[in-house]
Fold:
Amino acid sequence: MGQMVSHKGELLRINVAKNFIEYSSNNGKVWHRRSGQSHSMGTLQDLMDSGDEILVTTSKGLYYSSTEGKVWHRRS
Structure:
């Protein structure tokens, strides 16, 4: 896993300094904030593209998104 993945034509990364997910649709030239709920997920650690979902490990557990990182749900 890592802090940046390619998913469905976009790059997604963890902004470590601000603890949120960012995306780029132009190969990393410009980055935009994607997720507004990362503060409740704990400290973001690693991202993984698993096909239909993006996974992120955090200090509070494993979360998944099927909406390109717009909405996250905790995986039990």
Strands lie at 4-7, 10-15, 20-24, 32-33, 44-49, 54-58, 61-65, 73-74.
